[in-house]
Amino acid sequence: MTRTVKTTEIVDPSVRLGAEHAPPLLESLSVIPGKRALFAVDSYFRDSWEDLCELPPDAIEYILRHHAVLLLKPDAVVGRRLSAALGWLGEQGTVVAAEPVRLDRHTTRVMWQYQWNVASRDRRDLADLIVRGGDSLLLIVAMPPGDRPATVRLSGAKGPAEPARRQPWHLRHRLGNDNFLLNFVHTADEPADLVRELGVLFDAPQRRKLYRQLRRGADATAAAQSLVARLYERTPARDLSLAGFVERMYQRLAGRTGPAVRTLASALEAMEAGLNADWRGLCDLAGVAGVPLDAWDRIVLGTHLMVASESGTVPILAGVPGSEWDRRSEPAILPPGWLPCRPRAARTGHDRGGGEPAPPALRYDQPVPRGLIHKEGIEEVLVTDSAQVDSGTFALAAELPQTHCYLSDLPAGPARFDLMAVLELCRQAFYVVVHRHLGVPFDRAFLLGRLGVDLAPQLPFADQPGRLRVETAFELRRLIESPRPGLVAGLTFTAPDGRPVGTGTMSGSWSGPAEYGALRSAVRAAHGLGARVGPPPAVRAPLLPAASVGRTAQRNVVLAGRTEGDGEGAQDNAFDLALDLAYRGMFDHDHDHLPGMLLMEAARQAAIWTVARTTGSLAGALTPTRLHASFPAMAEVDLPVRCTASISDRSEQDATGVMVSMRQRGATVCRVSTAVAAPRGGRL
């Protein structure tokens, strides 16, 4: 009797794969989340993907979207199905690569690693016999454009392994045979499978050559036909039907006598009647009867009688639901503006004497596409270029704004370094890397966990370079702040001449449209709010004067009314957040919640106001040199936000520490630790 075991009895819930183990795969490589998680840590996929990423993005897109793999296994060679399969494949597109491959027990287990958890021992042993029976033929076809990738279309047209489910238009139906394991062909199901299987079947030089061959797209039909002829020439043909096997056995037994022969004949009759499925026992009886079975007879007998799968199990990765591909709005595989991640070992021509790679050359003459940074205005884009340094490090070029109505609004003019511009650069650098280099889709909503910047000492009051170089080191892990996949980034800012500017940190997670919509609905419902976001609440108190918060334009003030603390010794100050959603300098596009950058600007203004009142300094002479923010919860647009600031530390050299907290209906939505400095020499 088969015992059903509950999943909870055998699976430890702490056993999981997540973003902390490897960079996430492009979601357009597979519609199956489990496959993306497994392939992200799969060495065969990673090797092949890195080789593919040596090509330009347009070539990668062309290969992934328009190419499919068809593997004709040894049973197709001995069963003489190669020519028919090649003819059928020519109807689907143009054969652009043909390579003989030799499978073994290792490659089969790797190729079907995520399906063979259900495979019976019979199935595994017989598969080993099949691949030892000769060479296979790998064909790659370039197919016309379609809504689905070529891999998905060809996999569907191939037909299932189960004979009962095949249709007349399927390749496996055309090739014949009613056997589950002797099915002649295999296809890569999705773009991710194409990449991984080329990683399994070929070493790095062969893979790179093959990818270049696919990029050229030359017709390889003649080469494929030549390989078919050579494979047929050196491989004897066999009848792979069970009826043919039985006929051969009776012919071999003709004229033989003795108990062993009679026992074998009876066993064959029982098998034909469906009463004997012990193929291993039949093989033993044949040996005793003096008519031993060769490998292909064992294969034919075993594959017709075997139980293919263990009962009560399902594959780790099952078939690909084609309907999921139809849900995608765009047939393109790569997101717009995506650039490949190239590991250091795969790059050449950058060594400098000691072997250290030279920093990638970066451009400053044009901004990156604004969609990469989630902005609508081109004037909002600070990042001008990006490149990968190694597997987890990226370099970016940026130009700080000189005439921006908000970010350049400083009492000393845009020559002064202001922390907010560098914080915005952190945010943009993070988005550029995750979209362009890590392939996170553009429809993902990002949830900011933490963001912080420390400027180099005295930098805010020195001559400022307009251009910056940013080095970012990314660590992928599941963040404490969020159950969703996320990244933690460490950033280093330098001037083009090498002068240090500062350091930054940022963490964030992301979710798809449906998940994000559910999250927002739940958060708003917890506040008693409906789905529609209303206008910000009216603030009765007047806005603080721009000069008192380190700005010159009143429209850039986001705080209203000091309501606590009075006089130079005030230690605690409270304000209301005042919003003007029509002001494009701060609200470049519509938001369904208050952006983190706005909350950090409020913290900056509260800190400058508090330090000026406490120390007697002129607010216009002060500037934050450090700001670290965390965001425990989303801040709603249509609820009041209370901002409080207090002096936390006066021991920092040339700076005063300030703690700022923002609360909404009693819940903290933002915490900020900042340091505010004055120029050397004291107050102004």
TrEMBL record:
InterPro entries: AfsA_hotdog_dom, NDK-like_dom_sf
Domain A-factor biosynthesis hotdog: 372-507, 549-674
Region (Disordered): 344-366
Annotated Pfam families: AfsA (PF03756)
Protein's name according to its UniProt entry: A-factor biosynthesis hotdog domain-containing protein
Organism of derivation: Planosporangium flavigriseum
